[in-house]
Design a protein that fits this description.
The structure is a single chain. 42% of the residues lie in helices and 19% in strands. Helix 14 runs antiparallel to helix 15. The chain folds into two domains: 263 residues, Alpha-Beta Barrel (TIM Barrel); 87 residues, no CATH class. The chain contains 15 helices and 16 strands. The chain is α/β, with parallel strands linked by helices. It is globular. An eight-stranded parallel beta barrel has the order 4-5-6-10-11-12-13-14, surrounded by five helices.
Length: 366
């Protein structure tokens, strides 16, 4: 099966469709579970399948350092290496340009890292990022891009855009395995609608199979994030999938689906679980709180995850207070399923033409 995208229904700007990949078809909109180093923290592959996760996201920068892209390729690629039987997406390492800013230097050729493991130098070029992701065998690869932090000045954003666009062109030229691996461009431009328009126009001319929206989860305010996501989505081709990178809260996702976004990822479900926080349709709760000590209810009535079908809030609080690792495991299972159920509900609402009404009921405002 090759890569293709088709829209089944629309409700306003929101879309429900199908994304075909060599490792299976995914219903859109969908949420990707983050497996940065080829592992979802706190979950086995069997548990992931039980939550009905469909796509995993890993990171090319991290995997190129350990165990190495060649080592993964020798073992059949990323999906086979993990024992996963579904599609995968790999980030190029562009996020590490932001997150490891003190350990890297930008050049026209690429980015020179002192890697975070042993400090050895690593030159990551746009061509190298594509080659690494090709070896990893991801169904969807991302171009190397530059993501400035929130608060960066206009000159920094303009320089980031020049590099992002030049690197996108170089990535597009080296991309060879078009039938089996899709390559997405990434729109940057900060909070400037003018720069976002420029970036969307440039990348659209390169005719990528899909487009990521980057640089909107790096410290901006919630209203600014929602404004720029809505603006940027409307500037991208209607026939291509749109991926909002690294966002976000359940309410952010509801708003972004309404704006026409098809794909999401975020570390919040797994990270919050490690801090004993669970997502519910009424907002997050912290299971360490004393009010749950004798609460025999599941985390959320009506949730079909293994956690809610098996254990009570009281038991989870007991594990959390003891610092037992199983508290994080149980909560990770629930949080991942919560996000997946949210996207399933949004898709159903789009198909029924009731997204506006349903979106208000699924999750309270942040």
């Amino acid at each position: 099966m090759s890569f293709s995208f088709k829209i089944q229904a629309k409700d306003g700007q929101a879309r429900a469709g199908f994304l075909d990949t060599p490792h299976g078809t995914v219903k859109t909109p969908f949420f990707m579970v983050v497996a940065t180093a080829a592992s979802v923290k706190g979950m086995t592959i069997g548990q992931l399948h039980a939550t009905r996760a469909r796509v995993l996201l890993a990171n090319a920068y991290h995997l190129s350092i350990r165990p190495g892209a060649e080592a993964v390729a020798e073992r059949g690629g990323l999906a086979a290496f993990m024992g996963w039987h579904g599609p995968t997406l790999t980030d190029s390492g562009g996020y590490q340009i932001f997150s490891l800013a003190r350990r890297r230097r930008l050049t026209p050729d690429g980015v020179l890292f002192n890697n975070h493991i042993d400090g050895r130098k690593l030159l990551l070029t746009p061509e190298g990022a594509v080659e690494i992701q090709s070896l990893l065998g991801a169904d969807i690869m991302m171009c190397l891009d530059v993501c400035p932090p929130a608060g960066a000045d206009r000159a920094e954003h303009e320089n980031a855009l020049r590099l992002t666009h030049a690197w996108a062109g170089r990535s597009r030229r080296i991309w060879k395995n078009e039938g089996k691996q899709a390559l997405f461009g990434i729109v940057q431009g900060g909070l400037s609608e003018e720069l976002r328009q420029e970036s969307a126009d440039f990348l659209t001319r390169l005719d990528f199979p899909g487009y990521g929206i980057g640089g909107v989860a790096v410290g901006e305010s919630t209203p600014d994030i929602r404004r720029i996501v809505s603006y940027t989505a409307s500037r991208l081709p209607d026939t291509k999938p749109r991926y909002l990178m690294g966002v976000g809260t359940p309410r952010d996702i509801i708003e972004a689906v309404a704006a026409g976004i098809d794909m999401f990822d975020c570390v919040m479900p797994t990270r919050h679980a490690r801090h004993f926080q669970a997502f519910t349709s009424r907002g997050p709760i912290n299971l360490r709180n004393a009010c749950f000590a004798r609460d025999d209810q599941p985390i959320e009535d009506g949730c079909d995850c293994e956690t809610c079908l098996s254990v009570s809030r009281a038991y989870l609080r007991h594990l959390a207070i003891l610092g037992e690792i199983m508290a994080s495991v149980w909560l990770t299972i629930h949080n991942v399923r919560f996000y997946l159920r949210l996207l399933e509900s949004l898709r159903s609402a789009i198909l029924a033409g009731r997204l506006a009404e349903t979106g208000r009921c699924l999750y309270p405002g942040d």
